[in-house]
Amino acid sequence: MSEKAGIKARVKTIVEKARHGPYATAKAKGIRGSITFSLAPKVWKGEKPPSPGSWVILANIERMARGWRANFGRPWKPSDEQDLK
What we know:
The protein has 85 residues and is mainly beta. It has one helix at 78-84; strands spanning 7-15, 23-27, 35-38, 55-64, 67-75.
């Protein structure tokens, strides 16, 4: 998967203790509802977990019974801004 691919989303909540491990939810323009993504290393590619209000790149998004799930996430970087121009 290309590191540049994906959508920009803003982190809304972080859940550190959950049955299947830590996860976060985010909102993205053009997607109705929230997107959930795991903070396990197989999904989250950041050095540290995101914080509420931070921007992230989410990819490999799929529709689930109760909303959306991203199977790849990483922090938004300054170079991502240049890629939008």
